[in-house]
Amino acid sequence: MILDRFRMTGRVAVVTGAGRGIGAGAAVALAEAGADVVISSRTKTDLDAVAARVADAGRRAHVVPADLSDPAAAAALAQAAVGEFGRVDIVVNNVGGTYPRPLLETTPEFLEEAFRFNVSTAHALTTAAVPLMTDGGAVVNISSNMGRVAGRGFAAYGTAKAALAHYTRLAAYDLAPRIRVNAIAVGSVATSALEVVVNNPEIKGKMEADTPLRRLGEVEDVAAAIVYLASPAGSFVTGKVLEVDGGLQAPNLELGLPDL
To answer: Among 26, 199, 206, 208, which is most buried by a count of CB atoms within 10 Å?
Structure first.
């Protein structure tokens, strides 16, 4: 049956930024598809709550609280997976994000910090995990719609996410045919990161109106795409950036920054 191709029974996944939002949803979805998971973020209480949901799905979670802005901490998760579960098969590089800032207030240091948090951490974990993926594997990087469209105030974030998208293509070419590497360009998803928007009917309504599918994304929309790309269902897909963004061709959130 076609649904069997989405099963990952006996596989082990590492998910970064897994305490909330997309990372938490990805960890639970992978568990529901049969994988055990290593989950990491800063806050242990958040991770413990996700681990309980993984257990409810009948799988095991290994909780690793860590500051994943440090690439070395991200890289260490690969060995943690092998130490706890004896293998690693899937990496979901979800951790990232950068606050908006006007271009002329975006210092080189701020830009470099955005690159490190969104790209260097993904590279560190990927290069640590790949030698341990003895049966092949899959990497899924979480990029953003802002990595391909232009909006004021997103120079650091958009540049970093665009770099992650192209890193995906380059890594996929280097690691084929044994390891598949794909990314998801995520649009506006209703998570705690957009809490201010979600709780403001006026802003939320405008964002929905500016999205062709007339709604914000849900965590499960992205989690389903992660399962597809990580599972045998996506076995003929590598080096691609899947746009899960409601059909956006332009930003649906304007910061109102004035002309110079």
So the answer is: 26
> What gap in Å lies between CA 71 and CA 104, rounded to an integer?
28
Token pair of 35 as six digits:
């994988």
92's enclosing H/E stretch is: strand 90-93
Nearest by Cα to 49 from 28, 69, 34, 67: 28
Three-class SS string for 173-220? HHHCCCEEEEEEEECCECCHHHHHHHCCHHHHHHHHHCCCCCCCECHH
Among the listed residues 157, 167, 173, 228, the single catalytic one is 157
Look up tokens 């949901």; give the residue.
53
The percentage of the chain sitting over the pLDDT mark of 90, rounded to a whole number, equals 90
Averaged pLDDT, 85-91: 98
Positive or negative torsion for Cα 57, 61, 181, 71: positive
Q: Provide mean pLDDT across the span 229-257.
A: 95
User: Which residue, 42, 40, 115, is CA-closest to 75?
Assistant: 40
Which helix (H) or strand (E) segment is 64 a member of?
Answer: strand 61-65
Residue 167: active-site member: no
pLDDT in tens, 127-149: 999 999 999 999 999 999 999 99
Distance between CA atoms of residues 7 and 31, nearest Å: 10
User: Positive or negative, the Cα torsion across 121, 122, 124, 129?
Assistant: positive
